[in-house]
Amino acid sequence: MTTDPTARERNPFLEAVGRVTVAGAALDHNLHNMLGMLSMEPTLIHLANAEGTARLIELCELVVSVHGFAAEDAADIRQCLARAKALKDKRNTVVHSLYMGAEDGNGLEALKPLRRKLGHTATPITVEEMEALADDIVQLRTDIFRATWNARAKEKGINRIPNPAAPTTGA
Fold it and tell me: Rounded distance, CA 80 to CA 125, Å?
């Protein structure tokens, strides 16, 4: 059996960082789509083209606050945006950190880059935690699609997508 001399050994840590990075980029895409579907305002959508996650969340919150969505739909969208904020912060810890071995010998620590005060903070993180974060972001993307669809469903005359977390009623 011959082995490919150019083949590289897999690195679960780098794969997990990459998965979080890709999921975060896809989240930004979903937030931009959410903004477009909720606002239907070309100028606002154009303004948002070069914006980062935090600004996209702010713009979506603005649209929800000024548009007359049903209370249930507005609450669902706000919940998605709150989750997006929390996951953005966790994603940033993974994507924008330097890594070193944890002091206790287990796992890794994500180091924030040095600041002017020449101090640093370290956050212990494992490959499993990064994989779980990527999974949470993927689930949020599904929920954003559902919340956005449902906010416009009545107006467009289309069926709502049920929330899989909510109990269903009926026979």
Answer: 24
Token reading at 171: 């026979």
61-77 pLDDT, tens digit each? 999 999 889 999 999 99
Q: What DSSP character marks residue 49?
A: G
- Residue 162 tokens, joined: 């049920």
Give CA–CA dist 74/55, Å, rounded.
Answer: 19
* Contact in structure between 74 and 64 (CB atoms under 8 Å): yes
Q: Are 147 and 80 in contact (CB under 8 A)?
A: yes
User: Distance (Å, rounded) from C-alpha 155 to C-alpha 87?
Assistant: 31
Rounded to a whole number of angstroms, the CA Rg of the chain reads: 20
Q: What is the pTM of this model?
A: 0.80
Contact 27, 136 (CB under 8 A): no
Map residue 101 onto helix, strand or coil: strand
For the chain, give the mean pLDDT: 84
